[in-house]
Amino acid sequence: MSTRSLASLALLSVFALASCRQEVAQRNDTLLNVSYDPTRELYQEVNAAFAKSWQQSTGKSLVIHQSHGGSGKQARAVIDGLEADVVTLALAFDIDAIASHGGKVAPGWQARLPNKSTPYTSTIVFLVRKGNPKAIKDWTDLAAPDVSVITPNPKTSGGARWNYLAAWGCASRTFGGDESKTRSYMASLLANVPVLDSGARGATATFVQRRIGDVLLAWENEALLAMEQMATDQVEVVVPACSILAEPPVAVVDQVVDARGTRAVAEAYLQFLFTEEGQEIAARHHYRPRSQAVASRYAAKFKKVELFTIDERFGGWEVAHREHFQDRGSFDRLYKPRP
Amino acid sequence: MGNSSMRRTRMRSGPAGRIVRIALTATALLFLFGFVVLPLVAVFAQALSRGVQAWGAAVTDPAALAAVRLTLLTCALAVPLNCIFGIAAAWAVTRFEFRGKNLLVSVIDLPFAISPVVVGMMLISLYGLHGLVGPAMEARGLRVIFALPGVVLATVFVTMPFVARELIPLMEACGHEEEECARLLGAGGWQIFRRVTLPSIKWALLYGVILANARAMGEFGAVSVVSGHIRGVTNTVPLHVEVLYDEFNFQAAFSVASILALLAVGTLAAKSFVSWYSRQRGGNPEDGEIA
Amino acid sequence: MRKRSVLPGFGLTLGITVCYVSLVVLLPVSAMVARSTSGGLSGFWAAALSPRALASYRLTLTASLVAASVNAVFGLIVAWVLARYRFPLRRVADALVDLPFALPTAVAGIALTTLYAPTGWIGKPLAAIGIKVAYTPIGITVALTFIGLPFVVRTLQPVIGALDADVEEAAASLGARPWQTFLRVVAPAIIPAWLTGFTLAFARALGEYGSVVFIAGNMPMRTEIAPLLVMTRLEQYDYSGATAIAVLMLGASFVMLLAVNGLQSWSARRSA
């Protein structure tokens, strides 16, 4: 028995090693884009378009792999060794984390590409039941006692952090910067939340599929996608007068591209997002393009909203995270679920 | 033994016995229906909600096929390892007395008690880029986390106790008199195992393997942490289900999930066939049979 | 307490077992424990015993205990029926017991939520009489019952199958009533396996994540289970906080497993 079991053990481990060796061997012509949840459809199309243009200009074929998940979780995977050539995440905070934990991305990454390295933007809107029975028009309506609000948990979801900050920023504008009024508004808004899903897509399913809640706070691109993919007869989008400018950034992972020799293609890939063609694809997938020319073509789709950025209202992600989402931050203090 | 005990049960049962029997059977079936059948039906109802063709399309999608391949490969590596381990552990634990035995048995059970998420986290704190041995392995070009070895390791961890756990109570209950007889008659270790022990534990062993296999195919939490979610490369079937679900493609998600359910039902059907076949051959397959 | 055995293979099998266990289980566990104390011992306790963590332990323990108890009762009935009686669809029922293993936990969670949400097949009638299941502790218990069932059935079934019906026959023919036969003859033989099944179901429930997050609603202090809290800490790059809770959970379930295995070998020795 001993010789047999040892032989099979040895065989299996050789097999396992061989297969991981093989993965390392074939590399130059692949690119791994580690991204967050709602960009699957967007990057499927971007990848196909870029691979084609790369082949035309260099004659080399290119395979682009995609990985999606919660933005924070994806950033952590890259920190722990996931070999991403480029990261395209939900918040600058998460790419900053990659830069500060082990330095896989060089500091100052945000200045390397136009528009603070965000090729497209989005904002936070409301998804309500067909006909808007609770007459939800703006942020203040969300705090009414009979309204039930669906938003994911800001502790685990990047999207939920945008939701939270959008509500906070707009309320503070409505109350003329009165901090205590803003806090009590946020407390009554959070008291209206019956379920805190762990991710944005889970929250969308809770709202649309399980029909829980009167209003879902969602990214504009998510809301439009949900309308497109399911249940257009059951829900509709309401765009508030005020909202936050969500800027999902992109970056080349310096240590990985230098080790793999893929810097040129990785940089070209991200540049492609800023081209006319890349902007067009982003707009088709419900992201607000940076390019004025493309934006004017899709003017009907993206309603005019008064947008504020996180830098001007909250002083950047570092500060916003510390004040609102860390332990004993404003979320922990204001969130008291109904018994 | 199965047949004879059945006959006796029938013989013994008067009217009161029959009522008890029917009541127990009904309770068991009702419980199974409520807790197991209904969720399964829900999966298939969703999977077939857009017809068989949509189901077929979802199942034969290249990314789905790649996920199936990865899952099967993972099982082919993890299950035999745990099988060898399970037999060795059960033999050591039930045939000998030694100090620290309870501790050892508890450690064998430990993977059941550890949250799969934590399993993934442990592997990352060991093999990750900032882990204990990760940097050294990375320097030699060996990649564990976010590649096949990580997926296999996570699966091995999670399914480790199944075979051992299945064998230990049975081998405990069987006792070791027969093996000792064989020993006194001059049989060697391998011979005793093959001729005496294996025949009486083979069904429990098969059960253990089937369970380990089923769990290996379905493992989600641990694999999710260490896989890296690269579509078509490191996504196992359960991860692919999650991906599809997150793409609002509920029908495809449930379709791919139904493959896993079908695979499980298939292995169990195979097990039934094996037992039926060996009965046809006129062997002594009922020994230790449990189903 | 060391007994000589004539059987061979002690060194080999124990060697394989210990090596394997060390490589697969102990090495990663110690890596994690090392990490949890990197923030100092006071940081460890502060993270592991925060009010939110305590609330999540309470919920996780209660729901797991209830689920394991339900499984202990119904699992025994199912195992008994499957091992002893012949009826139509027995093999189908037998195969179904393993489904909670085979179904990926995330799919199980989604399926259960689909069933028990206020719009679901079961959730709707229950909601009509005022019982909410999904997004409450009841929903968590339902999910934990689902995943724990095979543990009890599959540990009991071989033992019941191996029981000699002759002894029960004899007891019955000596005038024992069925419940007497069960208590005096059957119960002593199956109690070790029963306890094992219960413990495994309980321990598994403590750590379950995938199926619960969908049905729980994840509200801090109310329906947030301990493994979710670990995930939450991880998302915030708080490794030592996450590992602190994980290590505490791990320690608790290990002590429990140790206790039950000790109890079991004690009862085996007494009956021997």
CATH topology of the largest domain in chain A: D-Maltodextrin-Binding Protein, domain 2
Radius of gyration of chain A over alpha carbons? 22 Å
Instruction: List the chains of the largest interface with their residue counts.
Output: B-C, 118 and 114 residues
Terminus-to-terminus distance of chain A: 61 Å
Q: What is the count of structural domains of chain A?
A: 2
Order of helices and strands of chain A: HEHEHEHHEEHHHEHEEEHHHEHEHHH
**What would you call the structural class of chain B?**
mainly alpha
Beta content of chain B comes to under 5%
Low-pLDDT stretches of chain A are 16-27
Rounded to the nearest angstrom, the distance between the terminal CA atoms of chain B is 11 Å
Strand content of chain A: 15-25%
Shape assignment of chain B: globular
Estimate percent helicity of chain B.
over 70%
The main β sheet of chain B shows up as: none
- Helix-strand sequence of chain B: HHHHHHHHHHHHHH
Kindly provide the name of the CATH class of the largest domain in chain B: Mainly Alpha
Give an overview in words.
Chain A is an alpha/beta fold. Chain A is 49% helix and 15% strand. Chain A has helices at residues 2-25, 40-58, 71-79, 92-100, 114-117, 158-174, 179-191, 200-208, 220-229, 254-260, 263-274, 276-284, 292-297, 310-314, 317-325, 330-334, and strands spanning 30-36, 63-69, 86-88, 120-129, 149-150, 215-219, 235-238, 242-246, 250-252, 288-289, 306-308. With 291 residues, chain B is mainly α. Chain B has 2 domains: 1-47, no CATH class; 62-280, MetI-like (MetI-like fold). Chain B has 14 helices and no strands. The longest helix of chain B is centred in the N-terminal third of the chain and has 34 residues, at 62-95. Chain C is mostly helical and 272 residues long. Chain C has one domain (41-271): MetI-like fold. Helices cover 79% and strands 0% of the residues of chain C. Chain C has helices at 10-36, 41-48, 51-84, 90-97, 99-102, 105-116, 123-128, 137-162, 165-173, 178-207, 210-216, 226-235, 239-271. The longest helix of chain C is centred in the N-terminal third of the chain and has 34 residues, at 51-84. At the B-C interface, helix 1, helix 2, helix 4, helix 5 and helix 6 of B face helix 1, helix 3, helix 4, helix 5 and helix 6 of C.
